[in-house]
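Practice problem: predict the structure.
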Amino acid sequence: MTEISENERWLLSYYRSSEINGALFFGRVARTIRGPLQVEVTHHFADEAAHAKLWTRCLDDLGLLPVKLSDSYQDRYLAAIGAPANLMEVMAITQVFERRVITQYRRHLRHSGTHPAVRQTIERIMEDERWHISYVKEALEGMAGRYGAEEIERTLARFTAADEEVYKGTLAEYGDRMEFLEWQS
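Answer:
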């Protein structure tokens, strides 16, 4: 059986923390949103909370306590770009962020030393992440009449650039903890 390194324990804790923050963010959005996206956003909120539970259970099953972290990826992300100004920006941020999550989880799955419990957790979460990408893409397409397709594309490009900078900063600060995944990139 593969043993979990302290770096991987930190990374699993980082995933957990990010899922908790995602649930809190979408909980706030779900509480205020009205209209056709209310069901999807509420579902997304529930998924994020379930993902945090899955990571907590995975760590516990491995006999590990989560590392206490001072911030999450979302904290860094929102610090870089600010709070979204409208629902289109919420959806655009979500699209960019969910793509990052899927990329990160795929990298983790490609690592040959990934523990089976970690692999199972990622594979379970990825089912939901694919749906998140799909419903958000459809929501953004539906907003083109209100915001304009060009404005949505500009917003996605701006958030993608911010995401890349935040990710580079995260790698600079925590590169040693993520190094075992990065050689696969």
